[in-house]
Amino acid sequence: MGEIKKMRDQALAIQKELASEEIEVEKNGVRVLITGDQKIKELEVNDHSDDDVREAVNEAIKKSQEVAARKLATMSGGLQGLLGGGK
Fold this sequence. Notes:
3-stranded antiparallel sheet
């Protein structure tokens, strides 16, 4: 049980870190500022199509997922520990 609590505490710490991370993407004249936990903080659009906005938002989300994946990889054992692997 102690190992589960340790992993839970690590996950909560990583979640807090992700909330403080900011990723900015500018594409096709659309600027998106998103947090590492995938909450949009700013969205600037200057007479662009819905497609341009969608592409910029999707790229920002993809980059925030990459940040999250790197943070999760730092957990001791990563997800392998939760899945019972690596032993």
